[in-house]
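wait is this the right file?? whatever heres the structure
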């Protein structure tokens, strides 16, 4: 009945790719994205300059930032970008490592598929390889205690090496470690937890990078509300008020009929009196600084200035909550609710000259702190902020987990050797996939050597020999080209960073390699009738 009659299954604006071509498309996308960030890996990695359609410029070697700015369109490529974003969200560092690892895993998968190894076997081998890799990582991990400041400094130092901040990384490392230790809280079982939002990073254009500082308090992007107020106040007691300090409108429609000048004068005086009462209540509480989430009426500003109170209006809710945590104060709704117990405390509040910044510093045992970075340009400051964020996150990871591993391609070389030995015990076609998984790790030491200007084959072979001889912490010194003990060299990073990179990269590679049919709907073309 249907002889010669075409059967339309899909609309004609759907582009379909099947079989090895679909797999090859995803493999090429993953390899291309990995190649885009590969040159940024390691202390001697290069930076990328990304220019948006509006002319905005970003200069960075942060993997997640590069991929985010690239605006990737390929569906398989978007999955690889998600790997970097997940890595950044979960642990804060290792984004380039994770991306490069996905590219290498897909390249190894391409070779297996060309040999007609079934995708499910490849995925199964990768799963077994990942489980073995995580087990080996646990074996290689070294314990770090909460008070081991030297180890934490080295972890922060490693995260910032190769970034624009390198010139002042010793100073910044101390600031970052102090900041994270300050806000860490101990659980009942003796472990520690750190809320990343308790360490705020603020930037200020104009001064040298050397002027970076740790503010035990908060930096607010606001000036004092009235010029007659003091520019600086010491022994600060801060009132935190959520409601506006103004004459509020009535909830219902109403009219006031004024027929004489005396009535007008009385009305004005009563309004001024109510505003003065607001200012008096704040001063009477003992507060000499005020953060108000809403507006402050001119009359209230005047009376607060007379009382010597430093006031800021229209403070963001986020900053109010952060200030309450840093100053150990309580946000109240109305001035009459202020008491000595609700006030926050600090050593000093001051307006930084020629800026719109107010610094409240010297808080007693603050539960939130601010790192204030300074630099000569906004482009530099943006990259500094990314570097400090990475460092703060890895120190947080190390404090929470209490474990770290060494860098310099050491872990990857050890994983490659041990997983290959494990593959031999499995047998069958899965063994090929596990061996391919092991080989994928070679991309990290190879890339480190390549980015440092050394012969990749010589360095990879030297690393393998050192590990075969039992030096499980041997890694590549990217400055001298020698194979050295990375633990002694102080090149260390949290175990969580490496664990997350391996998990994210492997799971994404398994997902992509199993795709044998891609149906992409093209926009702007009419569908079949």
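ok assuming it is, sequence goes like this
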């Amino acid at each position: 009945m249907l002889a010669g009659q075409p059967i339309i299954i899909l609309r004609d604006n759907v582009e379909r790719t099947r079989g090895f071509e679909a797999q090859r498309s995803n493999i090429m996308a993953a390899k291309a994205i990995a190649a885009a960030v590969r040159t940024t890996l390691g202390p001697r990695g290069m930076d990328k300059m990304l220019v948006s359609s509006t002319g905005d410029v970003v200069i960075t070697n942060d993997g997640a930032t590069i991929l985010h700015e690239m605006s990737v369109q390929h569906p398989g490529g978007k999955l690889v970008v998600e790997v970097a974003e997940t890595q950044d969200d979960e642990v804060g560092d290792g984004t380039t490592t994770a991306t490069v690892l996905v590219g290498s895993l897909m390249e190894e998968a391409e070779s297996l598929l060309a040999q007609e190894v079934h995708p499910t076997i490849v995925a199964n081998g990768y799963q077994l390889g990942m489980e073995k890799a995580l087990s080996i990582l646990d074996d290689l991990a070294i314990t770090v205690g909460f008070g081991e400041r030297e180890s934490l400094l080295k972890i922060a130092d490693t995260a910032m090496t190769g970034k624009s901040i390198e010139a002042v990384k010793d100073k910044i490392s101390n600031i970052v470690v102090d900041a994270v230790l300050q806000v860490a809280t101990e659980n009942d079982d003796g472990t520690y937890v750190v809320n990343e939002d308790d360490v705020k990073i603020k930037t200020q254009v104009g001064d040298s990078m050397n002027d970076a500082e740790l503010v035990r308090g908060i930096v607010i992007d606001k000036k004092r509300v009235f010029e007659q107020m003091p520019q600086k106040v010491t022994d600060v007691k801060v009132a935190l008020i959520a409601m506006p300090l103004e004459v509020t409108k009535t909830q219902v429609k109403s009219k006031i009929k004024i027929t004489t000048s005396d009535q007008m004068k009385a009305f004005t005086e009563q309004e001024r009196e109510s505003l003065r009462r607001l200012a008096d209540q704040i001063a009477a509480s003992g507060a000499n600084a005020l953060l108000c989430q809403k507006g402050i009426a001119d009359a209230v500003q005047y009376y607060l200035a007379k009382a010597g109170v430093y006031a800021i209006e229209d403070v963001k809710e986020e900053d109010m909550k952060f200030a309450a945590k840093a100053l150990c104060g309580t946000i109240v709704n109305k001035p009459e609710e202020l008491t000595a117990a609700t006030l926050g405390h600090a050593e000093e509040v001051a307006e930084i000259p020629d800026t719109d910044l107010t610094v409240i510093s010297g808080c007693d045992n603050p539960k939130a702190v601010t790192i204030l970075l300074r630099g000569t340009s906004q482009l530099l400051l943006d990259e500094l902020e990314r570097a400090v964020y990475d460092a703060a996150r890895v120190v947080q990871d190390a404090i929470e987990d209490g474990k770290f591993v060494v860098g310099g391609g050491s872990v990857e070389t050890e994983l490659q050797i041990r997983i290959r030995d494990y593959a031999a015990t499995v047998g069958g076609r899965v063994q090929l996939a596990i061996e391919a998984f092991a080989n994928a790790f070679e991309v990290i030491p190879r890339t480190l050597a390549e980015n440092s200007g050394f012969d990749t084959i010589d360095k990879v072979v030297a690393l393998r020999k050192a590990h075969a001889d039992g030096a499980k912490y041997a890694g590549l010194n990217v400055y001298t080209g020698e194979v050295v003990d990375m633990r002694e060299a102080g090149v260390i990073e949290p175990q969580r960073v490496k664990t997350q990179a391996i998990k994210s990269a492997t799971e994404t590679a398994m997902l992509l390699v199993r795709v044998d049919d891609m149906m992409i709907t093209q926009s702007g073309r009419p569908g079949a009738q």
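The chain has two domains: 17-143+405-515, 217-365. so i think its the right one actually
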